[in-house]
User: Fold these one by one.
Assistant:
Number 1:
Amino acid sequence: MESQRAYRFVQGKDWGFKKFIRRDFLLDEANGLLPDDKLTLFCEVSVVQDSVNISGHTNTNTLKVPECRLAEDLGNLWENTRFTDCSFFVRGQEFKAHKSVLAARSPVFNAMFEHEMEESKKNRVEINDVDPEVFKEMMRFVYTGKAPNLDKMADNLLAAADKYALERLKVMCEEALCSNLTVENVADTLVLADLHSAEQLKAQAIDFINRCSVLRQLGCKDGKNWNSNQATDIMETAGWKSMIQSHPHLVAEAFRALASAQCPQFGIPRKRLKQS
């Protein structure tokens, strides 16, 4: 039997000729097809690099899969308030939303709507500790995974992300705050990181404080190793002085990290004990 058809083999699927040979013809010893009960098949197969259709023209890359519009579609669903089933009143401003989307994205919202809480019964949630603009940006992230205005409100958005357990948004805020650390804001940023368990941001802030301290001790003010924004001693800033009063443990952590970085690997040398 001979075939000129091209076939694309897919793993897990077989292919062949249903009427390749009759069983009685195969088992007839007179035909000599099963010597010693062994069937020998001779196949000649040609493998092509591109798949071909019957006409012989290649059809590789002829199908163009549309880009995923899930984020855009969900964003439009929220912006247009279609089929919403709950409302948030944020300092007097109303935002409509979908409980199923919120529950899928945030474990806090999931618990709020899953249990017999007041918000679940009335489909109305009052929020007084988040600015409307910050809440709107957070909701945009919930629906689209994007926060285009994050850099303008990273500190407040970090607090909101922490409150509603939006871990990816929280880390995005940490990253934005890390890239904008200065002598003037590092103490306030350290306090913010500590309040909201932003461990990566906290580590970066402490490292920034320590690097500034080392540079100041070395007097590296030649323009190459010293940034003009670091000219002011961190300890003279209002943020640092406030942190001493409100979060003294952070001061201790910063100096502990500085001491660990400057001490030799094997610790501070001890005096040799006198031998009797």
Number 2:
Amino acid sequence: MFRKGLLLLLCLLSFNSFSSNNGDLLKIGILYFNPPFAEVVGSNTPIAFGFNVEIIKNICTIINKQCELVPMRFDKLLQALDNNRIDAMIVGISLMPERPENYLFSYPYFISEAVFFTLRSNQLTDLNNQTIGIVKNTLFPLSDRYDLVFKTRKEKKYLNHKDELRFKFYNNLPELLMALNTHQVNAVVLDAGAASYWINLSSRQYVQIGPVVARKSGLRIMTTKNHVQLISRINNALLEMEKDRTLLDIYRQYWGALTPSTHVQGYLIRQSPHKYQFIIPGAFND
């Protein structure tokens, strides 16, 4: 689990040079501010640190490439990738672009869950018929209505339960949190790491609500289809980091003990006009 204040004790990396000085420069897009995954401080000599930065630093070393971090807002990163101004992006968000067939994805470097949270002052007891804010091109396919299905305990029995959700999409994280704080939405959904950070930082202003939703695809590095060799080398680097326990060491630095979620697991199903489709296939067991 994310431990507050840990980021300041971890490795700080300047933008213009890490990894080997051999080979062509790779431009890697990151977010300006998405703790604990990435955070950029300073203007004259920007410094980046966070979980994603540590991951990509090790990858660049293994594939023997010099890498430059390019910080942007999330929606601008997608445009930069499409226009070849960056070679790849690592953002600490479960990516779900509108046309995934146009991109290549690495193996997951982190398996995450989607977590809902709301303002404590909203005094919500469930998510049924609520408007949920989400960053566009993340977590779930673009659709404005979903059913959230999960098990609930009633009279000593577990029963299937369904909440109907309305999704409202935003371009980036600052817009999303502003929408929550100004009551444009009733709750928001983020990857678990980012949700944990903001809940902890809010001094009890934010509170988690509802079940968590497993994200089987996890967090992945994304590039365009003309970078087949690059994504292959990134995948090989991730396998090497898994084998020599580098990945595990980075996990433990940022997240502490790796334990299964104790929260109720839910599943999202898109409503019409789409046909019903389980986002995370699975069956409920009594």
